[in-house]
Amino acid sequence: MRAARAGFSLIELLVVVAIMGVVSIFIGRVLSFNQRAYSSTDQLAQAQQDLRAINSLLERDLRHAGMLVPDDVAICGVDEVGAPDTLYVSDALAIDPQNDFSGYNGADVTSGDAQTLGTHVLDLSSLIMEPSPPSRPAYDTDNDGVNDSDFQVGGGVIIADRQSPTSGVACGRVTAINVGSSQITVDVHSTLSSAVELVAVPAQEYRVAGTQLLWNGNVVANDIEDFQVTYIIDNDDDNQVDAPQEIFGDDENVPHNLFDDPSPNYGGGTIALSASMSAAALVREVRVSMVARTRLPDEEFTSGQPQGTENRDVSGLPADGFRRRVLTTKVMTRNIGIEI
Predict the structure, then answer these.
(1) What is the C-alpha separation between 24 and 3, in angstroms, rounded?
(2) How far apart are the first and last CA of the chain?
(3) Beta pairing partners, 149
(4) What's the DSSP call for residue 64?
(5) Fewer CB within a 10 Å sphere, N or C end of the chain?
C-alpha cells in the first residue's frame, strides 16, 4: 500500500496567502507613512535652512544700507497687500571706500526721470560712485574681463531729487547698461513727483518671482512664498520708534506709500516730511517676514494654508496641504540718520 504524502491542503495555502497579503499591506502602509514623514521633515529642514541663509544675507545688506551714500538714496521699497513686497537697499558691495573719509554723492542723472512706472532710460554723470581718479568700478558689465560699472544688470537703483527730498524715493531694476554713454535702462517700480536734480546709486534688489526669492536677479532660495517688509521710522525726531505713525507696513489694509508720495500715509493718516528730508532718511529699522513652504503638499496635512504676515492679506485662500515656516527679522539701519 502506497504511503500518504505529507503537505499542505489548498485551504491552508489560501489562509497563508491571505495572512501574507494582510501583513504586506500593513508593512507597505507603515513604509509609506515613514517615507512621507521623512520627506516632510526633510523638506521642512530645507525650508528652515533656506530662511537662515536668506536672513544672513539680508541682515548684511540692511546693516550696510546708506554706507557712504546720501540718506535719501539709502533704501526704498514697493509695498503689496496681495503679493510679496520688493526691497531695494543701497549696494555697499559696489562701494570701495579704501582710505576715503567722505561720502559719495552718487551719480547725477543728466537726462531722464523716474516720474512714472515702467521703463526709463537715464543718462548718468558716471557709472562709478567713487571719485575719479582713481577709478574703482565693482562689476564687469560688458563681460570683457574688466570691471567698468558700479551698477549691474538685474540689480537695482535708487533715485532721489536733491532739490526736493519730499518728492519721494524712486527705485527699480536695471535692465540694461551702456558703458560707453554711461547710460542705464531702469524698470521703475516706485516713482518721484519731481525731477529737478536727480541722483542715483546702485542697489541690491530682493523680490519673489513665483516661489523663488531673487537677489539682483539671482535665485537664492526656492519655495519662498512671501516676503513682507515693514519700515520703522523716526517721524518725531525723538530718537525712538515707538509711535503708531512710525510703522509702515504693519496691519494695514492698503499698501503704504512711504517712498512714493510727499505725504506718506499710515492707514488713514499721513506724516509731514521736513522740506529737507525724504522718508528714506527717516528709516531706523526694517522688519522683514519671510514664509517658506515645503516643495510638495502633504496629503495627510489638511490644515496647511498660506500664512499672513505684516499687511499681507491671505483671507479667502484655501487650505492646500503645504507645511510652512515663518522667519521674522528686524535690523537697525546703522548708516542712515547718522551724523558724523
Answers:
(1) 37
(2) 117
(3) 139
(4) T
(5) N
Residues written for the chain: 340
User: Which amino acid appears at position 226 of this protein?
Assistant: D
pLDDT digits (tens, 9 = 90+) for 236-270: 666 666 566 778 888 777 888 888 877 787 666 67
In tens, the pLDDT along 59-114 reads 999 999 999 899 999 999 999 998 999 999 999 999 877 776 678 889 999 999 99
8-state DSSP, 30: H
Residue 270: inside a domain: yes
Question: CB–CB of 85/249 below 8 Å?
Answer: yes
Query: What is the spatial distance between Cα 67 and Cα 86, in angstroms, rounded to a whole number?
Result: 20
> Within a domain: residue 77?
yes
Q: What is the pTM of this model?
A: 0.85
Q: Is 190 helix (H, G, I), strand (E, B) or coil?
A: strand
Q: Identify whether 95 is part of a domain.
A: yes
> Which domain does 178 fall in, by range?
44-332
Q: How many domains does the chain have?
A: 1
**Residue 126 contacts residue 148 (beta carbons within 8 Å):** no
17 in any annotated domain: no
